[in-house]
Amino acid sequence: MKKQYILYLLAAVLIAIMPSCSKTANYKALIITGQSNHDWKVSSEAIKQILDETGMFSSTIMTTPQKGEDMSDFNPDFLKYNLVVLDYEGDIWPEAINAALTDYVKQGGGLLMYNSKSDPGGIVVPDSVILLKRQDFAISNEISDHPVTNGLPARWLHPADVIVQGMKPAGEDSQVLAAAYIGNEFRGPRQREPVMIARNLGEGRIFTTLLGTPDDNENTALHCAGFIVTLQRGAEWAATGEVTQEVPFDFPTAAGSVLRPDFKTFTADDLFENIGNYDITRSTKYFTYLQNEIRKAGGDEKKLLKLEKKMVGVLKDDQATNEAKKLILRELSWMGTDYCIPSVKKLASNQELTDDVNFALTRLRSSN
Amino acid sequence: MKQKTTRRVFVRRSAAAAAGVFIIPNIIPSTALGMGGERPPSDRIVMGAIGTGSQGMSNMRNFLHLKNAMQFVAVCDVDSKHLAQAKQTVDNANSNNDCRTYGDFREFLEKETLDAVSIALPDHWHGIIYTEAINKKLHVYGEKPICRTIKDGQTIVAAVKKNNIIWQTGSWQRSLANFRRGAELVINGRIGKISYIEVGLPDGGRGIGTPPVKEVPPELNWGMWLGPAPKVPYRGVCHWDWRWILDYSGGQLTDWAGHHIDIANWGAGLEYTGPVEISGTGVWPMEGIFNVPVEYDFLCKYANGIEMRVANASRLKHGMGTTWYGELGWVHTDRGNVLTASDPKILDEVIGENEIHLYKSENHWQNFIDSVRSGSRTIAPIEPAYRAVSVALLGEIAMTTGETIHWDPVSEIITGNERASRLLSRPYRKPWSLPTV
């Protein structure tokens, strides 16, 4: 009887936690915009897409009265949301709203400050700031064990953005998570400007990003995978205090910046749909992604075999390029099993691939 | 001519006598040799150079600075421009026009009668050319990392042992006072028992995308440059930048292993062993032909309980260099004569007469020539070089597979992981193969 009771309880718990396992949006985000020195229509739409893309957030955009207009009807109910995003620089809000926002955070709410150099809520105090000329720059983690930055490359390149010089985050407990290094100087005397700041306030959290400003043209900085991913991670941390999102394979590195034209990364299905057309001069990203998937499997036989079967599918595909087959043979050479060997052997008659087939078969037969 | 041959035989015999025995280098003061400290030409070590790019020429100049101790007579390179520059340098030093040139190392090794050879090549050629030169019983000054794969390294180590030749690795930090002093303080327990070591190596740099296929410049024998590596069209990436492509190199990680990991091992007494467990992660570029990790961070556990973290410098508190942590504090060494400690008093410690005094060399190239002459071991022999790069190569395997690797440092095999074991070697493109020892 007692046992049965525990089972019921377990089932209830499972049902309760199940939604969080799937990709249903659990968190409501309110994006407040309407006044800014950048094109807030572009940025707020982008933020909405980026947050919703996680599958964790369902975002709503709310527009404030325009500059100089009466604010008395502007009265957002912060408490209905898990995350409030400020894409706003403009008229000071009525004191009651500021106080409500502060209370909301102190009581456990999450606040994400996007490129706000002045703060309507009295939470981050602005200093005198200078906006530097739009440029590419390097970003370096200052704190690598914070949930937002944990697992990210220590250094990465960020394209065509504005560096805010002289920003001093309010609150002694503010943590500068990452900083821009001007002129891509990783070493030696260098000018460091905070670009991501985290702060705990009461029961809540504030994440500030100074990256991703629109440029009235292609908005390159907004499409930077580094900006997108840190915004998604910062949002989750602000809303919940932790980050469950994996670091995607396309996070930029010191080797180069990475753009996501539609704000999205791609999936394993995209990978095998596209890798057969592999053209080294066009892009190496599908192959990089394949290698990442293999590493992520971490020796798990089932996962590796699943990948191997798809890789063999490319070897068998008459439409797939030799370039794609070469790269797949190279990976199979160490991670393949007996499953791939007949398909590898069949390619030996393809003169373009003879060396690669030999490479793969030699290694597949070797061990210690 | 007869005199020269006789001396060379002497050099080789004494090397054989010293093999396997630790001997304090027996440096004969030059004044004892007469000639007012100058050696007669017939008494100079006769050398050749294979690989005369930037590192090969740097080594050549360092040898030539030794004046009269040695003489280059032949050079070999697959780039005829490099070759011509090398010949010019040698001819200038010898005040003649006699330096012989080769575009193929096989012909070089076949035709030349030398005492020693200085070799500086891309890593993918090390296994074959080091082993062939050693099999010819030449003494070798060889660049680090000594191998691209563990299998290559094992072959080179076996060849050195079998042929009893004198080997010096280009791990020249060993011949600098601050590194030696740091290692000596640590090995004599001045920071207590060592529990943890951090090794910071350079971060990776920017990629270049994938440049278009280009015509091979007339001075370059591209097929020979590639040698045992997979055949690829020429895209203008060759000298210097080969280091950012996995077919030829492991990147900054394997390049610098022969410096700061080597120093770490020297101080911690790990020169003749390896880790038992390796795990970690890397960061790879998403686009372009440069495909070595630009970041790396892995932990090696040793059988005696020591742990060594190897990472790109940006990830570590002390950045570049070696930091040993012991019960009583830490010691850090790096280039630029850096030697610091948790307590500056540690650095004033005197090493007593009966304590360990690490091998002392003040000039890495002189040390090689002296060792060839005396038949005693160099400051940077082959096995420590193999053990240092093994740490990086095992780290590379752990990062590539995403698995924790178990390594048996005695039988030198990966245990319980067939996939990872396959990464211990790279198949050679026909007709090349790893020579037998």
Kindly describe this structure:
The complex is a heterodimer of chains A (368) and B (437). Chain A has 368 residues and is of the alpha/beta class. Helix content of chain A is 35%, strand content 17%. Chain A is built from 10 helices and 11 strands. Chain A has helices at residues 2-21, 40-53, 95-106, 225-240, 268-274, 285-297, 301-316, 322-335, 341-346, 354-365, and strands spanning 27-33, 57-63, 83-86, 110-114, 130-131, 135-141, 155-161, 164-165, 175-181, 192-201, 204-209. In chain A, helix 5 (268-274) packs across helix 6 (285-297), helix 7 runs antiparallel to helix 8 and helix 8 runs parallel beside helix 10 (354-365). The termini of chain A are far apart. Chain B is of the alpha/beta class. Chain B has 2 domains: 2-173, NAD(P)-binding Rossmann-like Domain (Rossmann fold, 3-Layer(aba) Sandwich), CATH 3.40.50.720; 176-207 and 237-352 and 382-422, Dihydrodipicolinate Reductase, domain 2, CATH 3.30.360. Chain B contains 12 helices and 15 strands. Chain B has helices spanning 2-18, 54-64, 80-94, 105-111, 126-135, 150-163, 177-187, 222-226, 252-268, 364-374, 382-401, 418-422; strands spanning 45-50, 70-76, 100-102, 116-119, 139-142, 167-169, 194-201, 277-283, 295-301, 307-312, 321-326, 329-334, 338-341, 405-408, 413-414. Chain B has a 9-stranded mixed beta sheet with strand order 13-12-11-7-10-9-8-14-15. Chain B has a 6-stranded parallel beta sheet with strand order 3-2-1-4-5-6, with helices on both faces. The two termini of chain B are 30 Å apart. Chain A binds chain B through residues 140-141, 144, 153-155, 157, 186, 249-250, 252-256, 258, 280-281, 283-285, 288, 291-292, 294-299, 333-335, 355-356, 358-359, 362-364, 366-368, and chain B through 203-207, 209-210, 212, 230-231, 283-291, 294-295, 312, 314-315, 399-403, 413-414, 417-419, 421-427, 429-430.
Tag the structure with descriptive keywords.
heterodimer, A: about 375 residues, alpha/beta, Rossmann fold, about 35% helix, elongated, B: about 425 residues, Dihydrodipicolinate Reductase, domain 2, 2 domains, 6-stranded parallel beta sheet, 12 helices, globular
